[in-house]
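so i finally got all the pieces together for this one. its two components total, 507 residues if u count the protein bits. some of the lines might not be protein, just check the labels. i wanna see the whole assembly predicted at once instead of chain by chain like last time, that was a mess tbh
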Amino acid sequence: MRYSALSIVKNALSGNRHWKPVWREREPKKAYDIVIIGGGGHGLATAYYLARNFNLTNVAVVEKGYLGSGNVGRNTTIIRANYLLHGNNPFYAHSLKLWEGLERDFNFNAMVSQRGVLNLVHSDAQYDAAARRGNSMRLLGVDAELLDRRGVQKYAPYLNFDQERFPIQGGLLHRRGGNVRHDAVAWGYARGADARGVDLLQNTEVTGFKISRGRVTGVETSRGLIRAKKVGMAVAGSTSRVAAMAGMRLPIESHVLQAFVSEGLKPIVPGVVTFGAGHFYLSQSDKGGLVFGGDLDMYNSYAQRGNLPTVEHVIEAGMTLMPSIGRARLLRSWGGVMDMSMDGSPIIDLTPVKGLYLNAGWCYGGFKATPASGWCFAHLLATDEPHQLTRAMGLDRFERGHLLDETGRGAQPNLH
Amino acid sequence: MRIPCPLCGERDSKEFSILGDATVKRPDPDGPDAAGEFFDYVYLRDNPAGTHCELWFHEAGCRQWLVVTRNTLTHEVAGAELSAGRKAKKR
């Protein structure tokens, strides 16, 4: 059923008793053309674009928990395309374009809201770096505005302009960035894929690969063997564990990143503000909660929860930037497991095992990439050729020395 | 998370900073496959879900490097020893 204003009225008149489930519960078939491991944002988007762009529908998405139970529902919902490197940003620019048309495309309300992303700078050097980044973005057709101190004061008067440790000198404003209702992204892609014939298999954990003569022939799961000609991995924080079952070691470490939300408040923060120097960023949800986060806890973790020193650090940075949040009560904090790559950029590529494809290394930037990741991974799975936008995101780039290191921090994954 | 420093006793993890996996070994730069081994050493990690040996620096304490054994699924710390002492024992 297509959602529309008319469908809402009709269903309201019949007491909302006739809404259909958004997707079907299926029994796994014995074999598929393509199996995607991971029913999160990227896996579901991949299934959707395989069906939509390539008409490939003999596809299953296998998920060990429930759909959208990982990072797609744990992030702070920000979308943006403000990367510096030309190997990266055209991909994110494409993602932003897909976000802009996503709701019409998959007929689901994801509440895409382009309310702007402001990166603050605190020194002459940072101001120059922001100018350079802005120019790089504009060369690639993405909007960027350099604000001086007065510009930031006008745009975000609620920040503390008197602090002396990190005086606000300006910022780079990316107006097309913003926020999206993240759960709806998983549900919208799931519904769109299901409607086109993809099987979504929840509570189906992959326990091993069937590999014969260097080629994958299927996956062992908690619901039995599922044969497949091609298998795509989109499992974020679990990437190393799943890849190890196929005998691969990857340039990835898993780390926990925490996020926070306050009680609902009246509107105060219209867009996203990032305070990189202090490890803090925030926005305000449509329900009014201040949604914020900081840096990783720094140690390897699969626990999906963090520790208190990081909570304290994030709150301190928040108080430095915006003392008024001290009056708000914190409702919740939670953690997600990030697949931190060795250069801070993602990997979408073939693997040494034939028929096995990798989508990983999203660090803490996976959510904004969801549409383009699905788009390009579907292209790779369908054609065996990396999409033009992900040519710099190959798995062999580490060995070749062609890193995509946005921050220039080297092979220390927790610093990216 | 608290780390039992062999010199300072059990201390809050806030006093320490982590470097990462303690099991990787710097290869011989003059070895026959030095390039391949360095790629492995610099970039590839086991990244286990479970017991992990890792290097921590007791920055706000004795300023010694420790090898800490910790569970990445539960954050339980099983033990910590001086990195320097460990190397000496192996020789």
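Residues 27 and 33 of chain B are 9 Å apart (CA to CA).
The mean pLDDT of chain B is 94.
anyway lmk what u think
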